[in-house]
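Can anyone check this?
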Amino acid sequence: MEKRMYKVKCEDCEKDDDQMGEVTEEQAIMFEAECFFWRRYFNLIDYDLTISVEDFNETGSAGVKNADGICGMCDALTGNRCCTIFLNTRIPKRVLNDRTIRKIAFHEIMELFYARIRDLAAQRTFDYEAYDSAIHRLIRVGESTIFEEMEHAKDVMIAEAEFEEQMRLEAEEKEKEKKKKAKAKKKADKDKSK
């Protein structure tokens, strides 16, 4: 289930206005789209995810909080798996651009990606099977995303290399044919002059 919340203004924000920039509505929409793109990419569809773009008086640009509002936790070990990814509407001007917004979205989805391991660590359990299961879930996601993408990329690179080699061979053949014609013409011209 996908939910949206946009721009909850904080009038008494104590940040230095000269150094802070305001996230635009387009960037807020981009942030949401990027979060859902990376969520699908890493197959994290089992999370009930809410995207919140709000003005909050904290130092961070973004974060993740669980259904109880606890930052940094995603309830990865429970069946609940509800969380909110939030983006601060006020980000330092020196880094406020579309690429940064996309990178922040990626970062916050990676927080979900590693949430199960973080939650296990927070419980201070040393259950090898639980850690091993969490790690292997990440590996399987990597196999179905990164590995598949790279396999496709390798196929594309091989096809491009084969195409370039074919073009090089054709160019060499054309050059040989051109030289052969030039040589034949030169000989014909020489024979005519005799």
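Reply from J.R.: I decoded it. The domain at 2-125 is CATH 3.30.2010 (Zincin-like).
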